[in-house]
Amino acid sequence: MSTSAKKVSDHHYLIVGGTTKAATTSLFIYLADHPSICGATYKETRFFLHTDYPLPSKYRFTDDVEEYNLLFPQCEEEQIRLESTPDYLYCPYALDRIAKFLPNAKLVFSLREPISRLISWYRFAKQDGKLPQDFTFDTYVKILFDYVDGKFENDNIDIEEKPIHEQYWQTLKQGCYSVYLKEYYNQFEPSRLHILFYEELAAAPSTSLKNLCRFTGIDSSFYEDYVFKVTNRTETMKNSEIHKKYRDLRFQLRKWTHDKPMIHNSFRLLRRTIEPIYLRLNTRPTQNVNMSEETRKRLINYYRNDVHELAELIGKTPPWEPFL
C-alpha cells in the first residue's frame, strides 16, 4: 500500500447516502445552506464508488484521500464537509473506504417506500430515454423479476442496448434496504448512522432537519424560518432525447467547473434561472402509473420480509402503508 493510502482525513464529514429517488438532492441543498456545513462543489461526487460501478464521475478514489478534499475548495476548517452520493449504500467498496479513511464521518441514509420508489425509477428511466414511452410498468417489473431470477432476455424488447448492470435494471433488488444497511451497521457505531424516511422528510421537512441537526451536532434554529423547496423532481418529458442531452451537458459542466469556484457558482446561478423555464417548455402533466393487482401483490410479497428486517435493524418501523 502506498504512503498516501495510509493517510486518514481529520476533517469532519456528513455523507448523505441511501436509495435513489428519495429526495437526496433536496436534502443536500437544505444541509449545505446551514452555516456550519460546507457542501462539495457538486452534490454527487461518487468519489468512493468502485472504478467499475456503472455511474460516471470525474474522480474516483485512487489511494489518496486528500484528492477527496479537493472537492471542498471553499470550506473553512471548522465546517462540516457535506456530500451526497446515494449509491454509496449499494457499493461495498465505498463502505470500506469511508470507514477506513474518514474516521470522523457521519452518514445519513434516506429511504423510500420501495414500491413507490420503483414507480419513480420507472418514470425516471422513461424521462431519461432509457425505456420507450409505451413501456408499461407491469412489463418493467416482470423484466426486473426475470433479471433477479437469472432469466432476463431482451431480444424481443425495444430497449436501449445497454449492459444489464445499468442502474435502471438494478432497481428491484436495491429496494431491499436491510441487505445493504446491515453491512454499514457492522462497520460503524450506531451513533455515526442516521436513517430518515423520504415520506417524513416530504411531510415535515423542518422536523426531519432538526433531527438531523441533533445527530450532526449543529444548531437546529437555522431551519425555524427556512423555506424548503423540492429539487430534482422526476418529471414527464415531452422530448426525452432533448432532456438526455440537457442532463449530459449539465453533468459535463459540473465536471469542468467544480474546481473553478467563480465559474462554477456562475453556472449554478444561471441554472437556477434557466431550468424552471426549460422544464415548463419540455414537460407535460405527469400521468398516473397503472399497476395490475398481480404486480402489486408480487412486489409486496417480495419486499415484506426485508421491511420487517429493516425495522428490527434500525429500531423503528418505516411509515410505509403497504407493509404496516
Instruction: Enumerate the spans where pLDDT stays under 50 for 5 or more consecutive residues.
Output: 1-5
Query: What do we call the CATH topology of one domain?
Result: Rossmann fold
| Adjacency order of strands in the biggest sheet | 2-3-1-4-5
CATH superfamily of one domain: P-loop containing nucleotide triphosphate hydrolases
CATH hierarchy: architecture of one domain = 3-Layer(aba) Sandwich
The best one-word shape is globular
Overall pLDDT = 86
Question: Number of helical segments?
Answer: 11
Strand residue content: 5-15%
Largest sheet data: 5 strands, parallel
* Structural class by helix and strand composition: alpha/beta
Order of SSEs: EHEHEHEHHHEHHEHHEH
The level-1 CATH class of one domain: Alpha Beta
Distance between the termini: 49 Å
The radius of gyration is 20 Å
Assembly type of the chains comes to: single chain
Level of helix content?
40-55%
Question: Would you give an account of this structure?
Answer:
The chain is an alpha/beta fold and 324 residues long. It has a domain of 168 residues: P-loop containing nucleotide triphosphate hydrolases (Rossmann fold), CATH 3.40.50.300. It is 43% helix and 9% strand. The N and C termini lie far apart (49 Å).
